[in-house]
Design goal:
Distance between the termini: 54 Å
Radius of gyration: 25 Å
Number of helices: 18
Shape: globular
Helix content: 25-40%
Strand content: 15-25%
CATH class of the largest domain: Alpha Beta
Largest sheet: 6 strands, mixed
Low-confidence stretches: 499-504
CATH superfamily of the largest domain: P-loop containing nucleotide triphosphate hydrolases
Length: about 500
């Protein structure tokens, strides 16, 4: 059995009004991937940051092997061989690959000058160990793909000769092919004896990458299990503390009247080609497709972000010409964007102002704004959507991903939109928060609102949609009603197998 290289005992960490970690024990062995899971706010990231030296716990002990250690800063942890690969890249875009890997630690020659040749050779050597020698170390990182930048981040971490690596949601922005490539690199690191802590929400990844799973809930350790000894249902029950046998619960609902229609809609860049779809009142319509199929580009066309290159768009029977987001919102259509942090929220602003961002003018057409009234409106939506926040004045950057998503939804609900585009509505949020988002979507449909949902998670599309359009290479490759096609059949059409178009 591999030796234990890291142990935490009784780690407790508190923030004002919140006990983020409550006496948590954890251990890591050499040559293993130990997965750390839990709902948003469960304490995963906090525990990782304690191990990385970013947070100092109020109570508890950390051991490397049998040696008790104390980290006051990340530099302390780094000096003992503990490094992190974060979801959000830390690369400097205008520096080249080698410069990024050895930033502020560049090798020097006998004259004290940077030895660029050695730096490039060392960078090549590290990338070669990851089977990434196809990456040109002289290129600025801004020209690399997301997957290549991810590999440079890993190479940068390896340049410290670590014993322990912490991966925080590393696959959030990667395609399926890129994810498998990353997993190959992680397996290689594991074989070298590294101990890896892997923080993730994506349950489908666990069996491909890990040996053990530790589950946190509300800051407490629920348990540690071998990956082969637990099924998905048992694992989710540990995470959320309740049965999720009906994750994708949908109410019986009748659709009445078309609210959205596109006729041979195309963009100017060839990403969307002759797309014709409809959406009815009270209906949830899913858009399935691989990365690059044109799903998000279609949403951007409908919402008026990108100009229409050809075809027609109708909202509630009215043809929309020279569309823009402002014009589309006035027609009662809102969009929950794929990237809530960059496109959906002003993270430094409060829950209150984010909730009212779109609707403020409609509530207060004259100059005078009632602070009491906007407080009441925002508070009402916080209660309706069960946003976990101390108050509506809390900055959105301090909320979990699931609660941030609820604030984005509150923004559009306050604007009285009755047609919603959800682009990757549950990306980066835990299973408990997903269930709440699904329940909200079902409730909105029952109330007569209409939803166009784009998702990379096929079970989500199948589970939540009344109808599904399947996109491949910018076109509609198929359409089916709920329950008419299996996941395998939909997946085949996503890959372009079985004909260019079909109607089921």
């Amino acid at each position: 059995m591999n030796e234990t290289i890291l142990t935490t005992r009784g780690i407790t960490k508190e923030f004002p009004g919140v006990k983020a970690l409550d006496s948590v024990d954890f251990d890591l062995r050499s040559g293993e991937v130990h997965i750390l899971v839990g709902e948003n706010g469960a304490g995963k990231s906090t525990l990782a940051k304690v191990i990385l030296g970013a947070y100092v716990p109020e109570e508890g002990e950390i051991y490397l092997g049998n040696e008790k250690v104390s980290f006051k800063t990340t530099r302390d942890a780094l000096s003992r061989g503990i490094v992190a690969v974060y979801q959000e890249f830390t690369l400097i875009p205008y520096l080249n690959v080698a410069q990024n890997i050895f930033f502020n630690r560049e090798p020097r020659n006998k004259f004290g000058l940077i030895d660029h040749k050695k730096m490039e050779e060392d960078a090549k050597s590290i990338l070669q160990s990851l089977n990434c020698d196809y990456i040109n170390v002289k290129l600025p990182t801004k020209v690399l793909s997301v997957a290549e930048q991810q590999m440079v981040e890993i190479a940068k971490a390896l340049s410290f000769n670590p014993k322990i690596m912490v991966f925080d949601e590393p696959t959030a922005t990667l395609s399926e092919r890129e994810v498998e490539s990353l997993f190959e690199r992680i397996r290689k690191l594991k074989e070298s004896g590294l101990g890896i802590i892997y923080v993730s929400h994506r349950m489908q990844e666990f069996k491909h990458i890990g040996e053990r799973i530790t589950v946190l809930r509300d800051g407490k350790k629920i348990g540690t299990v071998n990956i082969d000894d637990v099924n998905d249902k048992e694992l989710v029950n540990m995470m959320v503390g309740r049965d999720i046998s009906q994750v994708y619960h949908r109410s019986e609902n009748k659709f009445s009247g078309e609210v959205l229609r596109t006729e041979r809609l195309s963009d100017k860049n060839g990403k969307v080609k002759d797309v014709s779809i409809t959406l009815n009142k009270g209906e949830i319509v899913g858009i399935a497709g691989l990365v690059g199929a044109g799903r998000t580009e279609l949403a951007r066309l409908i919402f008026g972000i990108d100009p229409i290159g050809g075809g027609k768009l109708f909202i509630k029977g009215k043809e929309i010409k020279d569309s823009s987001p402002v014009k589309i919102v006035k027609e009662g259509l809102g969009m929950v964007c794929e990237d809530r942090k960059r496109q959906g929220l002003a993270l430094n602003d409060s829950v209150l102002w984010n909730t009212m961002a779109v609707s403020l003018k409609s509530f207060f057409p004259k100059v005078l704004i009632s602070r009491k009234k906007i407080f009441e409106i925002a508070t009402d939506y916080v209660k309706q959507l069960r946003v976990a926040t101390p108050d509506v004045y809390r900055a959105c950057k301090y909320l979990s991903g699931g609660n941030q998503q609820k604030v984005v939804l509150a923004k559009w609900l306050s604007a009285k939109t009755d047609i919603m585009i959800f682009d990757e509505p549950t990306r980066g949020i835990d299973v408990g928060a997903k269930m709440e988002i699904y329940a909200m979507m079902d409730k909105l449909a029952v109330e007569g609102k209409s939803i166009l949902m784009i998702s990379s998670e096929l079970p989500e599309v199948i589970g939540m949609s009344d109808r599904i359009y399947i996109m491949h290479n910018g076109r509609i490759a198929g359409e089916c009603k709920r329950g008419e096609l299996t996941a395998d059949e939909i997946g085949s059409k996503m890959l372009g197998i079985g004909g260019d178009t079909c109607e089921c």
